[in-house]
Amino acid sequence: MGLKDKKQPADQSEFSHLRKEAELFLSNKDLSYKDKIAEDDIKKLFQELQVHQIELEMQNDELRRANEELEIERLRFSGIYDLAPVGYFIMDMAGKVEDVNITGAALLGRQKSRIINFKLQSFIMPECIDEFYIFLNNLNTTNTQLNCQLKFFKDDAVVIDAQVEGITINNTLSLKKQCYIAVMDITKRIISEQQLSEIKNRLELALEASHAGTWEYDLRTGLFSMDDANYNICGLDITSFNGQYRSFIDIIHPDDRQKLDSALRTAVNQEKELNVDCRILRGEVACHISIRGHVVTERGKNKRFLGTMTDITEKKILEMEADQLKIDQHKRIAAAIFETEENERRRISELLHDSVSQLLYGIKLNLQQLKADKENDDALATINSLLNDAVKETRNISFELAPSVLTDFGLPATIEELAKRFSTPKLRIKTKMNGLKTRLSLTIEIVIFRLIQELLNNCIKHSGADTVIITIKKSKLLEIEVKDNGVGFNVNEQYQIPSGSGLSSIRNRLNFYNGTMRIKSQPGDGTIVNISLKL
Hints:
Elements: H1 16-27, H2 31-36, H3 39-83, E1 87-91, E2 97-100, H4 102-108, H5 129-142, E3 146-153, E4 159-170, E5 177-185, H6 187-209, E6 212-218, E7 224-226, H7 228-234, H8 245-251, H9 257-270, E8 274-282, E9 285-296, E10 304-311, H10 313-368, H11 377-401, H12 404-409, H13 411-422, E11 428-434, H14 442-463, E12 467-474, E13 477-484, H15 491-496, H16 502-511, E14 516-521, E15 527-534
Parallel strand pairs: 11-12
Antiparallel strand pairs: 1-2, 1-5, 3-4, 4-5, 6-7, 6-10, 8-9, 9-10, 12-13, 13-15, 14-15
Helix pairs in contact: 10-11, 13-14, 14-16
């Protein structure tokens, strides 16, 4: 490859004056000098000049290739620099911008020409100027990478939050220090953090208002941690709780531990929601809490179970009071219904006693005046017997509807009268009473009378017994026992498939007076019914 085929180096013209001086020097030399140079030496010198020329050409090629590679690298760096997602600023130590990439210009909402040669602090919010000068001074003195947060205003007056990181570099060409600054827009992150902080504050306020706290159970380590609110709810001292799951379970009321442990294990294994109401022992006082939670899985962290614990003691008390109010309301309604029934029975009983019975007595007296006529003795006797039966049946109906003896003489006399009226040659009813020297309230006496009346009706209809024993005993409770020697029945079947309304009516009355009933019976073994009433 000859010299003519090659492009001359760009700086060869700088040495042209040296060539002219060399040519002038040779022209002034004595011609005899040329003759003195041996022909061999001339050939050798020419060969060396050719080798040197080739070396220079090769070096020139290497320089050109290196220059092209540098240009490619410059273009590559320029692309990375301008298209980077982070704003880059090159400044002097006074803060004047010497260069900025496209992202940095877009971040400030300005053209490069309106940023370069301007000080960066002219784009910073006034309240952040002092912090920027401190940051710039530290860069100049420490020569380490530093960072800070500043507020910039864009050309459209929009304020942005930015994370600024910088380092000082010594420029090898200008031999002066330069600051290389990276600026990242963190406005969205700041807004998200503020929103998260607001949500956290609202959550804390909500938890505080609802008497609730948060807890966390690490499924790998088995550690159970709670916040201060939960320590207060459980009545624990933070220094006395060792963070073990079993220690937490021991806080729960003994009757609820199995329920909570089973529900939590099921929720963990099946990754379901946990929602359990249970009691805790706060000292010796049992309080109600609601425990909720779910499994949380995050990359790089252990699987955890996060939840809340809420003190619902007051809510439970209010619910129980509401339930009690409903029960009381139902009792008042039932009492009104029972009272209405009793009043209606009393009215019908009085009508039977005062009208029908009197009419029957009048007919009987008139018939007695006809006894003189002996021809009608048989007919009169039959009519008189029927009237006696009618009078007796009317009295029984009147007694069953509203026994006046209960109002006048009390419960023992009324039960004795009831047993006497229900007794027949085939059914003997005995009574045993203890502790009834003082009268109960008329309402309770009516309830007891109706209960025993219903049980006797059941015995007469279904038991086939020939002996019934009624026992009433009063102490702290009023205990009633009705025992027969009849055919008996299967109690479980009776509960599953009730065959009549008698027992249901008794249970309804007992529910409204806080009473209980127990039935003991087997087919062929008679029946014993025990009733307890709180007075």
